[in-house]
Amino acid sequence: MENVKHTLDVSVLVPTYNESQNILALLSSIEKNLPKEMVTETIVIDDNSPDGTGKIVDEHIKNRKNGTNHRIEVIHRKTKKGLSSAILEGIQHSHGRLIVVMDSDFSHPPQIISRIVDELNQSDHDIVIASRYIKGSIIQKWPIRRKLMSKTATKISKSSLGLGVSDPLSGFFGLKRNIIQEKDLDAIGYKMLLEILVKTKGVSVKEIPYTFTNRKFGSSKLSLTTITDYIKSVWKLYLYGKSVKEQEKRVLIRFLSKAWRFYTVGASGLVLNYFIIWLFSDWLIDFWYLHANIVGIAFSLTSNFVLNKWWTFEDRDFSARKFFMQYGKFAGFSSLGAIIQIGLVFYLVEGHQMSYSLALIIAVLAGAFGNFSLNKRWTFNEKFWS
Predict the structure, then answer these.
(1) Residue 294: exposure state from Cβ atoms within 10 A (0-12, 13-18, ≥19)
(2) Are residues 199 and 77 in the same domain?
C-alpha cells in the first residue's frame, strides 16, 4: 500500500453500482453526520452504473455551495470491477488521516459515522467495526436466507483465519490510514475488511453495535459469483496467514542463530583474552599485568569483531573504510555493554542488597544482550528482528 500524504481529517468511501435512488439522500446524510470542526471528504467510487449513479453525483457536485469543510468527489470506473477493488481505489485516491467505509444503500446508518470517528480519535483503537453481531446490535428486515448465509460465511472466516472479532465481514468500518500504509492490499474477494484484518493482525480493533437495515431501494449485489469469490478470498488469505507464520518462524530461527553465534564469539574472546594476558605477563614477555590486560582486550576485541562480521552477520565486505568504521562502532558499543554490566552490578548489589553472584549473572546477560542488539542494529545495519 503506497504511502499517501494526508491533508484531511476524514475520508468517507462509498462504492456504488446502480444506487441512483439512494445516493443523493445518502450524501446529504453523510455530510450532516460528519464532525463540523474537521476537514472531510466523501468519495463515491462508481462502477459505471447503468442507472447513471455517477452522473447524478457529478451534477450534485456542480450544484453544491462552496465554502464548507466537506468536499464530495466521484471516481468513475469504466467497468464493474467489484466492491473490494473499489474500496482499494478509494483508499489510494483519498487523503484523510482516518478512513470510513460504508455501503450506499442505507443499510449502514450515517449517524454511526461520528461514533466511529470519535472512537478512532479518542482511543488507541486502530480499526473500529460497526458490527451486526455484538450485544446491542439489531438486524432489521433481513430475509432468513441472508441471515443464514451471513452467519455461515462469518463462521468460516473466523475459524479458518483465526480472527477474534464478531463481524469480520462487515462493510461498515473505519481505520487509521497509517496501519495500512506499508501493507500490500490487493482487494482479495468481496469484503475488504477481511483482508485488512488478516494483513494488520495485532492492531487494536473495537466493535460497536448498530442497527443494520435491509435496503429499501435497488437490489442486492449478492450472487453466485460473489459466493465463489468469497470462498477463493478466504483460501488466499488462509495461505497468506500461513506464509506469514512460516516467515515469522524463519525470522525467529535466524535471530536466535545470530544471537547464539554472537555469544559464542564472545566466549571465544574471553578465552583469547586470558591466553594473551598469560602470554604477555608470565611467559613470553614480562609485561605489567595492567598492560597485559590492555593487550588482551585489544586482541579479543579485534577477534570478536572479525568473527562476528564474517560469521555471525555474514558481512564479507572488508574494504578498509567500512572495516574501520564498523570496528569503531563495535568497540564503542562493546564498551557501552561493559558499562551497563558494571553499573547494573553496582545498582543491584548496593541498591537492592542482591548477592554479588546473582547480580553478576543478571548484569552479564543484560550487558551481552545490549551489546548484541546495538551491534546488530547499528554496526552491521540489520533490523533488530531479522
Answers:
(1) middle
(2) yes
